[in-house]
Amino acid sequence: METDQYKTIKSSSKGLYKDKGSRFLAFAFPVATVDEVRPLIDGIRREYHDARHHCYAYMIGSERNNWRINDDGEPSGTAGRSILGQINSNGLTNILIVVSRYFGGTLLGVSGLINAYKTAASDAIANAEIIEKTLHDYYSVTFPYSSMNDIMKILKEESAGQSDQKFELECSLIADFRSSFSERVINRISRIEGANYRFLETK
């Protein structure tokens, strides 16, 4: 997979695992930023307030290096790491998985807990639609009207998106294209007389 591509889930999904009376409810959510994580976890805690544990793991970013795990009182290494393991084995990112446990009265042991959290998370992923996304860079581009044909030719050849177009004596637009194309596209635009560009964001 290209560096500007990643796999995530299209929408939220649920999973379930039962063992010796304990129930493990898994909830998977697509997330784009860390700021989205806490409200989702808090929402699960409120809705399933009678569950004993709410363990989670998340992975964010196309480079898959922004992650966190939480065992929420379960023996260290049994819950969050098992959930993260399923995220990793499916090559996913921009995802949060919360597993809420209702204790059934019988201890499952370390291996039993690892299997329970792993299986619940796996079920939530299996019930989700996995999609592939491509990162795009967004640039503000300005250019004189006389250069419009040259700019438009580049954007068409590079399959770039366009928005906020203003075509006057001084023209402007927002162009977006695959992140892996950025260097090439910007080099082409920079050779157009009077053209200027400014990086806005990647998403």
What does this structure look like?
The chain has 203 residues and is α+β, with helices and mostly antiparallel strands. The chain has helices at 37-47, 80-89, 109-126, 148-157, 182-190; strands spanning 5-9, 13-19, 22-30, 53-60, 66-70, 95-102, 130-134, 136-144, 161-166, 170-178, 196-202. It folds into 2 domains: 5-133, Ribosomal Protein S5, domain 2 (2-Layer Sandwich); 135-202, 2-Layer Sandwich (Alpha-Beta Plaits), CATH 3.30.70.240. The chain has 5 helices and 11 strands, in the order βββαββαβαββαββαβ. The strands form 3 sheets. It has a 5-stranded antiparallel β-sheet with strand order 2-3-6-4-5, sandwiched between helices. Strands 9-10-8-11 form a 4-stranded antiparallel β-sheet. Helix 2 (80-89) packs across helix 3.
What order do the helices and strands come in, and which of them pair?
Blueprint lengths: L4 E5 L3 E7 L2 E9 L6 H11 L5 E8 L5 E5 L9 H10 L5 E8 L6 H18 L3 E5 L1 E9 L3 H10 L3 E6 L3 E9 L3 H9 L5 E7 L1
Antiparallel strand pairs: 1-7, 2-3, 3-6, 4-5, 4-6, 8-10, 8-11, 9-10
Helix pairs in contact: 2-3
